[in-house]
Amino acid sequence: MNQLLIQYSYLQVLDFLTTVAFLLNGVREGNPLVRLAMQLAPNPMIGLLIVKLAAVGLGLYCWRMGRNQILGRINLLFAIVVAWNLAALILGTVQTREF
Q1: Is it the case that residue 98 has pLDDT exceeding 70?
Q2: What is the DSSP string of 82-99?
Q3: Cα-flanking dihedrals φ and ψ of residue 54, to 5°?
Q4: Burial of 48 (0-12, 13-18, 19+ CB in 10 A)
Q5: Please, what's the b/e burial string for 10-25 (b: 16 or more CB within 10 A of its CB; e: otherwise)?
Q6: 50 with 38: CB under 8 angstroms?
């Protein structure tokens, strides 16, 4: 299996986890399409999981079609998103606690 696809799938898992962490801390989903999927699903986590599974499906499609450049660019985008999410979670925690 292509390394880019493995990285893409891993970043989707990390994005899922950071989104769950935001939701547990009372932060609303920022992506309107993901928010809609979460509202329409019987459970918000199921909606989020469906979106992430669909994203992995799109990654598989890109890989099968030989669109490695797109996968590489999307990986960079999701790496930035995950890093941003982690930084926001850490800063939010630091602001609510005193060390």
Answers
A1: no
A2: HHHHHHHHHHHHHHHS--
A3: -65, -40
A4: buried
A5: ebbebbbebbebbeee
A6: no
Chain segment 3-53, per-residue pLDDT in tens: 999 999 999 999 999 999 999 988 889 899 999 999 999 999 999 999 999
Evaluate whether 11 touches 75 at the Cβ level (below 8 Å).
yes
How far, in whole angstroms, is CA 6 from its chain's centroid? 14
Q: What is the DSSP string of 20-80?
A: HHHHHTTPPPS-HHHHHHHHHSSSHHHHHHHHHHHHHHHHHHHHHTT-HHHHHHHHHHHHH
